[in-house]
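Me: Here is a favour to ask of a fellow structure person. Could you put it straight underneath, so I can go through it closely?

Assistant:
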Amino acid sequence: MQLGVLVSDCNENDTQILNQFSQHIGLAYQIQDDVLDVLTPEEILGKRQNSDADKGKPTYPTLLGLEASQAEYERLYQCASNDLNGLSVDAGRLQTLIQQLKNRIF
């Protein structure tokens, strides 16, 4: 099932839940991206390691520390997963998406 099909079957409550879900998963993805920029070797990452910090970009690991950033993106992915439990439609594919994103290495 594609996201568009899922959304087309949603009621107002589902729309609010999906809005919250998108905020949680989007921020989790960004924080995880910042962490991966620090931890992942260049051969896997596909760009120079620490390239964001080298460019002076503010990153979550720079602001919160690496460990706190890792804990925060894990927490946000869990929040996104919990959000989906309130939907009136099947969110199995979105739960799978969360797992795929959490397990990514670049």
Observations:
- Helices lie at 3-8, 12-39, 42-45, 51-54, 60-64, 66-84, 92-102.
- The chain has a mean pLDDT of 91.
- Residues 3-102 form one domain.
- Residues 57 and 98 are 26 Å apart (CA to CA).
